[in-house]
Write a structure and sequence with these properties.
Layout lengths: L13 E4 L3 E4 L3 E3 L7 E3 L13 E4 L1 H10 L4 E4 L5 E4 L2 E7 L7 E7 L2 E6 L20 E4 L11 H19 L1 E6 L2 H10 L7 E3 L1 H11 L8 E3 L8 E6 H5 L12 E4 L11 E3 L7 H11 L3 E4 L5 H9 L3 E4 L4 E3 L4
Parallel strand pairs: 3-4, 4-5, 5-6, 10-11, 11-18, 12-15, 12-16, 13-14, 13-15, 16-17, 18-19
Antiparallel strand pairs: 1-2, 1-20, 7-8, 8-9, 9-10
Helix pairs in contact: 1-4, 6-7
Length: about 325
């Protein structure tokens, strides 16, 4: 059941940061902002602040999150829709970081704020391409990928090749996914391989719900209590570490799909699916918006801040409670 978000007839008064960004005078919050009446979730792996919170996200992200975390009170908004909240217009635009990932555009008077909690402009796999945006202020709360992440298309080719060769050697290939977005991208890579794919409950439920959203998913079966003799198995990495039968799988039959920053000891190979954008890509993106100011969350490193400043952008780097004036 959807609930209407709390609206305000006042204009936004500024931006505050207290663990996450919040637009003062409105119910809108981002990241881990406190006391927000409506939280925007940019992708399927975004943290939900508390049970029962009102959230704004895409239908695909809502289905993916609800498959593993119950009690989601979601106001869903497609890329092709715009809604009015108080005196603001809200619109979601593709972010390229997995199915359903989005950035939030907030327009009021003749000014626009763009919040980005995850971005992939370089040939995204299973997500719509990032469109050119125009705004006055960018709120960038995203970790920086460095060195430059590999091309998603090349990573997908390597993953498919690894699955095929592993099946030929050991009859079973197990892919442990660090995030739900990575699991969905693995499914997208395997969708045309005519493979027997099994997954444990969270991934299976997510795939079943997303199939109703028009996403291309391969035929998927729920994993039983015992390992299959042949085929591909998808597991979430945290659950795989506790799997009681994981020590019985053949050597070399396990891979990790995720950010690639730390390869778990149980994985024979790592595929860096779902990486955020690299520093040069983020600078180019901010410049393309025409924004005069950018606010960086603590996930972004000082090198990115310096690069944006050299490009002529006024940078607010926040890591502790602070307030910023809007570019009015």
């Amino acid at each position: 059941m959807l609930k209407q978000p709390l609206a305000s007839d006042r204009w936004p008064r500024g931006i505050s940061y207290d663990g996450g960004f919040r637009i003062l005078g409105t119910p809108l919050g981002f990241g881990k902002a406190r006391d927000a009446g409506l939280m925007f979730l940019p992708h399927a792996d975004a943290p939900i602040p508390r049970r029962g919170s009102r959230v704004l996200t895409t239908p695909v992200c809502a289905a993916a999150i609800d498959a593993s975390r119950r009690g989601l009170d979601a106001l869903t908004l497609g890329y092709d829709r715009r809604i009015r909240l108080g005196r603001m217009d809200l619109r979601l635009v593709p972010a390229g970081l997995g199915p359903g990932s989005a950035m939030l555009e907030v327009s009021f008077k003749d000014r626009t704020i763009l919040y980005c909690g995850g971005l992939r402009t370089g040939r995204p796999l299973s997500a719509p391409a990032v469109e050119n945006q125009s705004c006055d202020l960018v709120l960038l709360d995203i970790p920086t990928a460095e060195p430059k992440p590999p091309s998603p298309q090349r990573t997908a080719d390597r993953l498919f090749t690894w699955v095929a060769s592993t099946l030929a050697k050991t009859q079973v290939a197990i892919v442990a996914c660090g995030t739900m977005a990575a699991a969905l991208e693995v499914l997208w890579v395997l969708r045309e391989g005519c493979l027997d794919v099994r997954a444990h409950r969270p991934v299976f439920e997510c795939s079943r719900r997303l199939s109703t959203q028009g996403l291309a998913m391969p035929p998927l079966h729920r994993l039983d209590r015992s390992w299959p003799g042949t085929g591909v198995v998808l597991y979430m990495a945290d659950a795989w570490k506790r799997a009681p039968l994981r020590e019985t799988v053949p050597r070399g039959s396990v891979a990790f799909a995720g950010s690639g920053r730390a390869v778990p000891a149980f994985a024979s190979i790592s595929f860096r699916l779902g990486e955020p954008e690299d520093r040069p890509g983020l600078v180019s993106f901010v410049l393309s918006t025409g924004a005069r100011q950018v606010a960086l969350g603590p996930k972004a490193d000082p090198i990115l801040s310096d690069a944006l400043a050299k490009a002529g952008i006024e940078v607010f780097r926040v890591s502790s409670p602070t307030q910023m004036a809007l570019p009015l």
